[in-house]
Amino acid sequence: TDSHNELPIILHDQKRLDSIELYPFEKIINSGIGSIMVAHISLPNIDSKAQPATFSDYIIKDILKNRLNFKGLVITDALNMKGAYSANLKPGEIEFNAFMAGNDILLYPSHISEAIDMIKEAYHLGLITEEEIDKRCRKILLMKQWVGLHKNVFPQKKININHVQNERLERELCKESITILKNDSILPLNNLY
């Protein structure tokens, strides 16, 4: 099932998760990966709430952050995808739930001001601390610094990317990006230039 259209449900248990699915995550975390995106998938045999992993503090906080010791940025998949959608949530709750589950960056939020109000209320109720909010902001700022976004690296003059000099590169990129899934004797394509 495509999470753009509906919530995929994966029935793997903790034993399979530990023996197969988590192995590549352990390797990339130990190699120093800076961010991980959480998918909109339901793992009801791992998190009994049967919610998208995006909203699961068990998956994000307990497994990813605590057990696997991931210190980088946790990023949601696009929150406007059907896999994250729930008809019984009011505006802002999708974003709020994703934030409270431990995500640092929320992609494509639809109801930003409502979510901010909910996060402020959670802060006043003691459900999230200022220290936790600062920690997440600091991680984002450090990542921006690490990739050089704290510097003014933008060109001062306009660059025409559609210039004739770039045509050959564009065609080469197009040619190299083609992937074949099935060939009924129509390939190879010739004369792409």
Explain this structure.
This protein is mainly alpha-helical. It is built from six helices and two strands; from the N terminus they run H-E-H-E-H-H-H-H. It has helices at 14-30, 57-67, 93-100, 112-124, 130-146, 167-177; strands spanning 35-38, 73-76. The chain has a two-stranded parallel ribbon with strand order 1-2. Helix 2 (57-67) links the parallel strand 1 (35-38) and strand 2 (73-76). The longest helix is centred in the first third of the chain and has 17 residues, at 14-30. The protein is globular. The two termini are 38 Å apart. The mean pLDDT is 85.
Characteristic key phrases:
single chain; 193 residues; mainly alpha; two-stranded parallel sheet; 6 helices; 40% helix; globular
State the distance separating the first and last CA atoms: 38 Å
Structural class: mainly alpha
Given as residue ranges, the uncertain stretches (5+ residues, pLDDT < 50) are: none
Helix and strand pattern: HEHEHHHH
What does the main sheet amount to? 2 strands, parallel
Helix content: 25-40%
State the shape.
globular
DSSP summary, beta strand count? 2
Query: How confident overall, as mean pLDDT?
Result: 85
Strand content: under 5%
Rg to the nearest angstrom? 21 Å
Q: What topology, given as strand order, has the largest sheet?
A: 1-2
The count of helical stretches stands at 6
Write the layout of secondary structure elements.
Blueprint: H1 14-30, E1 35-38, H2 57-67, E2 73-76, H3 93-100, H4 112-124, H5 130-146, H6 167-177
Parallel strand pairs: 1-2
